[in-house]
Design brief:
- By secondary structure, the protein is α/β, with parallel strands linked by helices.
- It has a single domain, classed as P-loop containing nucleotide triphosphate hydrolases (Rossmann fold, 3-Layer(aba) Sandwich), CATH 3.40.50.
- It is built from ten helices and seven strands.
- A hairpin with an 8-residue loop joins strand 3 and strand 4.
- Helix 1 packs across helix 10 and helix 5 packs parallel to helix 6.
- The chain binds adenosine-5'-triphosphate (ATP) and magnesium ion.
- The site of adenosine-5'-triphosphate has 18 residues, from helix 1 and helix 9.
């Protein structure tokens, strides 16, 4: 059976739309009837909260999946993953399940144990999931990023039309290359998704400059579809509801954009084919 798509939303920079694009993609994929898995790889657990998963002392998280106990046989992630996958909250489609994050996940960054292959192994234990979305933290590589990219099949780089958005792309591309040279040679690259893009009425010269710089610096890598900035997105996040249940014209436009983005993921090949 073909490996399910595992799309990692990654940029070195914060606030570029990684979590929003992850949750938007998850919502539209679930609406289409796909069984969706979301991995929250960010210790701040933003996606976990937005997806309505409550983490209490008994909830197993990505941290529990990765941690290797000091004594005894390490549990096989493929066997424990079903206990870690949590249903998304009631406001979300029931065919979304989440590997939640928690603060302690931050400790894995300096964990000397060889944890980097554990998430990839866990994915094998959930063959019922049709498509995975990974929400990555804003970091220039490191153990968590490596672990997440080792489990992904492709990387989508969200970029705002700002200096940070632009800078975040380069490091993310570098991380993809490094992981392809080691942990995950088959890791693909979907391209750059311009996100939180100001509406035409709010667009300034600087946005056009960054837009042009992205196209010039990374020819062929900037996707045609872009995610516009609409207040409804922030409102949906605050209410912890999927964009697919949000009311109004702006929500409809965003749903359409995430749908186009999903189509791209489902139908296009990686910009960087796996080395033969
Ligand atoms: N299309 C959009 N329209 C309006 N606001 C948006 C849109 N997409 C994201 N936002 C808002 O922009 C902010 C940053 O987005 P998001 O949290 O998705 O970025 P991030 O890259 O995951 O950030 P971090 O690196 O801090 O995790 C959030 O407040 C989010 O609600
Ligand atoms: Mg985020």
């Amino acid at each position: 059976m073909a490996q399910p798509i595992g799309s990692a939303q990654y940029s070195e920079k914060g606030g570029v739309g990684k979590t929003s694009d992850t949750d938007g993609l998850a919502a539209v994929a679930a609406e289409r009837g796909l069984n969706v898995g979301v991995v929250d790889g960010d210790p701040r657990a933003t996606a976990t909260a937005e997806l309505g998963v409550e983490v209490n002392d008994d909830t197993l998280t990505l941290n529990d999946l990765l941690v290797i106990p000091a004594k005894g046989d390490p549990p096989d992630p493929a066997e424990v993953v079903q206990d870690v996958l949590q249903p998304a909250g009631k406001a979300w489609p029931s065919n979304i399940r989440v590997i939640p994050a928690e603060r302690n996940l931050a400790h894995r960054e300096s964990d000397p144990a060889p944890i980097e292959t554990r998430l990839a192994r866990a994915i094998l234990g959930a063959p019922e999931i049709d498509i995975w979305f990974f929400d990555l933290p804003p970091r220039p590589g490191g153990k968590l990023i490596t672990t997440l990219l080792a489990a992904a099949t492709t990387v989508l780089i969200p970029a705002t039309l700002t200096t940070d958005g632009f800078i975040g792309v380069e490091q993310a591309r570098r991380s993809i290359r490094l992981i392809r040279q080691g942990m995950n040679p088959g890791l693909g690259y979907t391209g750059i998704i311009r996100s939180i893009v100001p509406k035409d009425s709010e667009r300034r010269g600087v946005h056009d400059e960054v837009d042009a710089a992205l196209a010039d610096t990374y020819p062929g890598e900037v996707l045609d579809v872009q995610i516009t900035e609409y207040a409804i997105r922030e409102e949906a996040r605050l209410a912890c509801v999927p964009i697919t249940s949000a009311p109004g014209r702006e929500a409809k436009i965003l749903i359409g954009k995430y749908g186009e983005l999903l189509d791209h993921l489902l139908t296009r090949r990686s910009l960087w084919p796996a080395a033969a």
